Amino acid sequence: MVQRTTLNMADIARQAGVSIASVSRALSGAPGVSPETRKHIRSLAHDLGYTVSPDAARLARGTSGRVAVVTPNLSHWFYSAMLDGIVTALHEVETDVLLYEVKHERERTRFFAELPARRQVDALVLIALPISDEERQRLDKMEVAVVMAGGVLGDHPHVRVDDVAIADQAASHLLVAGHERIGLIGSGGTWVLPYAAPAGREQGYRRAMDRWGVPVREDLVVRPVWGTGGGAEGMAQLLCLRRPPTAVVAFSDEVAFGALLTLRRAGVGVPERISVVGIDDHELAEAFDLTTVRQPVTEQGVRAGELVRQVLTGREPEESQVELPCRLVLRGTTGAPRPT
Amino acid sequence: MVQRTTLNMADIARQAGVSIASVSRALSGAPGVSPETRKHIRSLAHDLGYTVSPDAARLARGTSGRVAVVTPNLSHWFYSAMLDGIVTALHEVETDVLLYEVKHERERTRFFAELPARRQVDALVLIALPISDEERQRLDKMEVAVVMAGGVLGDHPHVRVDDVAIADQAASHLLVAGHERIGLIGSGGTWVLPYAAPAGREQGYRRAMDRWGVPVREDLVVRPVWGTGGGAEGMAQLLCLRRPPTAVVAFSDEVAFGALLTLRRAGVGVPERISVVGIDDHELAEAFDLTTVRQPVTEQGVRAGELVRQVLTGREPEESQVELPCRLVLRGTTGAPRPT
DNA sequence: GTGCAGGACGCAAGCGCTTACTATGAACTG
DNA sequence: CAGTTCATAGTAAGCGCTTGCGTCCTGCAC
């Protein structure tokens, strides 16, 4: 026997001198109560500090007004900026967010295995999380709506940027400036399931080079592990070459930061000797004075949140596969190649 | 009438040829069912992909196994690293996390006003969120457990670092190296309710100076707005002085990053001409080669998560006011003052 | 053989809501 | 003035679970 501890809908009903049903209707906005009654009940509820129990409501109604957001990582800028957008958008429509972090392969497997337990949510937002076919099938079989933020997942609604185009822009910028020996610090991909971005971005780099008729020198393409450390290492690798590149495209800003660190330590002038362009426009890119191609991360999150809302509202969203534009942000780490 | 869409406990009961009560007991681990029956029911439930509805369980039982985490900001490193720790710790004990972001004063007010609605959670974790007295009282009156992560809140359990000590360490490092003209880039505090860190850190700076008998020159103390931009501006301000400092303590690493940018642009050698020390050990501090005082952020989150668990388990935590140690991380932005 | 303890299980009363259905009376219509 | 209509309000049947209590049965002591 659990001690009754909070106010009840019945308490409100009693005090207002109406039935529980009326209270429910008044509070939920459903029709069937006169404006005055509604107002009276509402103000009473407010004064008493009463609010409808979401759990009971969910049980009775069948939907929870709750959404789960699943992210592979919380402490990295990209994911948290995305999350920020999602939460902001969802907050506006009074939708609660349940947060799940699945860092490792194992956790992911487990998460999807336990997914049925999560039927406490109406929808699932995946932040750039790659999943296996089997997991996708499980998802499809469930009655939750699924939205992908920062990627693609079958026919589910999604929001993302064009990774190929984004890297193409980065490389093109260097090509336009006259660079030819352009390196790429890509990503080693230590994941079991591949994230979409690395492959797409490498492809974009190659596409741009192709278009300009500049052959890709494979020794200028390195793939260290992801992150600042990897960037530093990758850059070091490139510096060891007989003829280092005059410019590099970094797979992401974080990688570029690492590359810049190596260059600074090596006493290599940026952009005099080597130009560096990143991808993402990390919140600290400006502090590094890094030229980069900006992808609107928080906005992607917001859009994803809106997609969720639309899907939940029932009406099929006008446009459920959103692709946001990216654009070059010129700062101080790129310039023309030094005349030989 | 909502269409029954998922499996029911009744479905399982029927198939297993037992009563609903037995299924509930078998699945929840409660006593009262024979080991064989339990096993049978469990495997059946597993095969059918059935899981107990958390909502119904909560309704019937009165507790939700859900915790709300409230943060003023999601996209900044500090908060998301903290969140990361909290989520990780809570994930281990199967506690779901509801996430709330309250960016502005107004949202905060609203959040606390609506708090009763949140009785869907068993506990509340506040990430370094300053709240008003009135709000605190509301909190105290509610039956939720409250844990503060990265700060103090009345007698509630909390995890944090000593901001005074942390800034003291930063300044001392410079003093030991022989600096005397040490600037402070603090924080302007545009918040209505003051965050604890700024004041504490400024105090720590002053304490260290005092201890070394070095008078604080007020013109060397600037308080721009928080963040990288503020840091850049604050540093610029200091550079304008007739005699700029030979070293600066930045209120946080992000501020230090901005300061470094200004110095680089101004062509001022770091640390030859000016040393810079930050506070926090931001995930990118290493990329900036920034000397800083490290505070264990994610770990604070983890500890906060553990506090929640303890509080929820009922047993009063052995130690509910945790203060984690910080330590200087030497990197390349500090050195001895240049001999005059 | 009788009595009793105790384990395994079913019954049924909620938990706090939503909502289909029904009742009531006021406002209209012809 | 009877006959309708319609807005408002109440009744009560669940939603899917937990749990106190009662029942039954087996095993054992006397």
From TrEMBL, chains A, B:
Gene3D superfamilies, alphabetized: 3.40.50.2300, lambda repressor-like DNA-binding domains (1.10.260.40)
Membrane-spanning intervals of the chain: none
Originating species: Pseudokineococcus basanitobsidens
CDD domains, A to Z: HTH_LacI, PBP1_LacI_sugar_binding-like
InterPro entries assigned to the protein according to its UniProt record, in alphabetical order: HTH_LacI, LacI/GalR-like_sensor, Lambda_DNA-bd_dom_sf, Peripla_BP_I
UniProt keyword terms in alphabetical order: DNA-binding, Transcription, Transcription regulation
Alphabetized GO MF terms: DNA binding
Name recorded for this polypeptide: LacI family DNA-binding transcriptional regulator
Domain HTH lacI-type: 7-61
Phosphoprotein found in the keyword field: no
